Hints:
Helix content: 10-25%
Radius of gyration: 15 Å
Largest sheet: 3 strands, antiparallel
Amino acid sequence: xxxxxxxxxxxxxxxxxxxxxxxxxxxxxxxxxxxxxxxxxxxxxxxxxxxxxxxxxxxxxxxxxxxxxxx
Length: 71
């Protein structure tokens, strides 16, 4: 079994629709610049309220990815 090292970084996704869409937005955006994503763990959910109504859903994710070995 090979040994691996993973980095976990925190990101926040935002959506006007739902927490699920906020998570998708975050993972898709991170996936544009980081290779080999492994796991995203929701660490916090909250909402932004404007004039007494929810305007945004926000999800804080711990996203992990594998470090490449030096060539």
